[in-house]
Task: inverse folding
């Protein structure tokens, strides 16, 4: 009988384990609560500092508004974090009460067992004591199982803290069910045992510079040496950032090539003094166009970036015509009065054609039309107000140079133009009929031309960011999403 009671006494160790687990859980909860309050205080202090900075922004209303919005968002976050900390108070009280109750049970059980050892022969039969001992031993085993369950609860309680798992067990507890099946909530991010997806959701309506900074920070943070894993930073913000960089590089290349081609053409064909002056005038006009675009708030897009080489090729025509006529007349007044009106009408017709692009509902097409309109007008103004005075000052400062026009020999180009003109005059009626037929055929097949809206097809196909997003799409299955916005007085009601 004494052996049974001694075995019952050993069952009190289960209570000690339970008490230890509850004390550990209380400590973790206290640390969590303290941490949440500290974070809330820090966020509130940051919000106050940002409010103070708004007074230093001066007359910069946009900066003041941004600082105010950021400060308000941080203050709301601080209040939410503090609410979370206050919510842990109930958990803290529960664990403390449980620990106290278990301590009382353990103390009472120890006292009762000791009393039974001292007086088990006083009025209680041996069979009754045997039965009581067996019951207490069963209770001790059950309490031991409860202790193991509380240990598991203590282990999984770390999931309540927003942090990276500290070991493999915590990771498995978060990701897998008891039957080692992946939890359904992680099915979109855990592709398989070898691939997973991490999604960083950005706040809406961020400026491009903020998106670029976020992408840069993420890439820098992931540049640590990983032993067993590789990673790819991809997504629309990354693709947009790479596209902007590619656009700037390609725009400089296109403008450079356009300048080189114009230099070659002017050097070979345009046989006048200072033959490259027209190119200099048009470059000044392009710079003026870019500056005026900035003042008017017209952005540079994938479509509008093609304006610059077009403008160089189109606008230089006005300068060449003015320059060539001036070399013939040697008079600014005669040049402007004789050819200026014709060129002005040509500019007006060109502008009206570009204005038709404003009817497009696509803002990118409208911006393209605006830039061409502005560029053509500035090119014409530059030809009159910049080219003509320079040519006048050149001849005024160099009167000794013989400016008589020598009759040029007939060149290959002149022969081609002469032959073409003769044939056009001779076969004018058939040519007109052929052109009308081609135009009609083009109008008929126009409806069969496909419309391409996939922006990825407009990008350089060897761009690294584009290849990355294709790789992620092939691995994940899809990167496209459809957002469904639901609104009601209470969307969580059972009727909904």
Result:
């Amino acid at each position: 009988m004494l052996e049974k009671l001694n075995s019952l006494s050993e069952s009190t160790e289960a209570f000690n384990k339970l008490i230890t687990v509850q004390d550990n859980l209380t400590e973790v909860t206290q640390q969590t609560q303290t941490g949440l309050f500290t974070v809330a205080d820090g966020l509130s202090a940051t919000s106050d500092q940002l409010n103070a900075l708004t007074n230093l922004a001066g007359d910069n209303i946009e900066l003041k508004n941004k600082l105010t919005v950021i400060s308000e968002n941080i203050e709301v976050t601080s209040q939410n974090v503090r609410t979370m900390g206050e919510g842990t108070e109930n958990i803290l009280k529960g664990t403390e009460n449980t620990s106290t109750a278990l301590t009382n049970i353990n103390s009472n059980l120890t006292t009762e067992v000791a009393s039974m050892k001292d007086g088990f022969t006083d009025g209680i039969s041996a069979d009754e004591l045997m039965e009581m001992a067996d019951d207490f031993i069963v209770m001790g085993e059950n309490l031991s199982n409860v202790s193991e369950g509380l240990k598991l609860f203590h282990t999984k309680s770390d999931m309540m803290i927003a942090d990276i798992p500290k070991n493999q067990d915590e990771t498995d507890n978060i990701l897998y069910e008891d039957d080692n099946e992946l939890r359904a909530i992680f099915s979109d991010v855990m592709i398989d045992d070898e691939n997973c997806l991490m999604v960083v959701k950005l706040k809406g309506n961020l400026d491009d510079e903020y998106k670029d900074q976020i992408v840069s920070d993420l890439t820098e943070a992931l540049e640590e040496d990983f032993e067993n894993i590789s990673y790819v930073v991809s997504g629309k913000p990354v693709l947009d950032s790479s596209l902007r960089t590619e656009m700037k590089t390609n725009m400089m290349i296109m403008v450079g090539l356009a300048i080189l081609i114009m230099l070659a053409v002017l050097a070979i064909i345009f046989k006048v003094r200072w033959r490259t002056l027209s190119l200099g005038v048009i470059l000044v006009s392009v710079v003026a166009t870019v500056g005026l675009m900035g003042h008017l708030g017209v952005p540079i897009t994938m479509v509008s970036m093609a304006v610059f080489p077009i403008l160089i090729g189109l606008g230089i025509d006005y300068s060449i015509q003015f320059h060539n006529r001036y070399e013939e007349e040697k008079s600014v007044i005669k040049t402007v009065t004789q050819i200026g009106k014709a060129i002005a009408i040509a500019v007006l017709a060109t502008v009206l054609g570009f204005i038709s692009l404003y009817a497009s509902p696509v803002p990118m097409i409208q911006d393209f039309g605006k830039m061409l309109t502005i560029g053509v007008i500035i090119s014409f103004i530059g030809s009159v107000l910049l080219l003509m005075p320079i040519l006048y000052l050149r001849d005024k400062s160099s009167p000794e140079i013989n400016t008589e026009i020598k009759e040029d020999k007939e060149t290959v180009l002149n022969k081609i133009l002469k032959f073409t003109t003769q044939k056009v005059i001779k076969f004018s009626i058939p040519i007109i009929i052929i052109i009308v037929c081609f135009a009609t055929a083009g109008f008929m097949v126009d409806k069969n031309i496909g419309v391409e809206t996939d922006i990825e097809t407009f990008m350089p196909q060897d761009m690294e960011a584009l290849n990355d997003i294709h790789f992620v799409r092939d691995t994940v299955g899809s990167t496209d999403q459809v957002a469904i916005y639901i609104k009601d007085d209470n969307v969580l009601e059972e009727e909904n």
In short: The mean pLDDT is 76.
